[in-house]
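Batch manifest, entry 17 of 40.
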Amino acid sequence: MKKEKPIQRYSAPERINHWVVAFCFIVVSISGLGFFFPSFNWLMNVFGTPQLARILHPFFGVVMFASFLIMFFRYWKHNLINREDITWAKSIHKIAMNEEVGDTGRYNFGQKCVFWAAIGSLLLLLASGIVIWRPYFADAFSIPVIRLALMVHSFAAVLLIIVIMVHIYAALWVKGTITAMVEGWVPAAWAKKHHPRWYREVKAKEQERK
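Output type: structure tokens
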């Protein structure tokens, strides 16, 4: 039996976009933890010095938001919830045992939850970050508003860190996921097993081109 050729999951621009978001997340999260916990002040040295961290942290945050926004407009249609996602969620005990459930499209229910939680967190981080951003915007807001924004920023940051940790764990758990974002291609058997509906859609498009 002839082995099927690999399927492209992500193009080069998509992969570059993803790793820009990942890099920005790492440096912003590390420096942010340095701001939040006095005992972790040394983490601000990720930007060289604490002074540079206070200047660059918000700029890298904006770059991260803008890069993820590109991903949002590219993938939001693939992350809409459907009936198969309900089946997936109801069978979470099988998922935990590494069984595939339902007719999954490009993304499963867990990946969709990560996607929407990430964009929600980033919107809160951007809005609250603008309010507390000195010396550019903070002077336009009252002290109570700034305090509220600091609280929102902190909670949203913790939420995003948890979401990304889940994302990383899931990517490591499902063999082949990391390879897809590094090389851009996945084996046809991988696509058929983990994302059967997406596999059929890709094959249908290939037939249309012939």
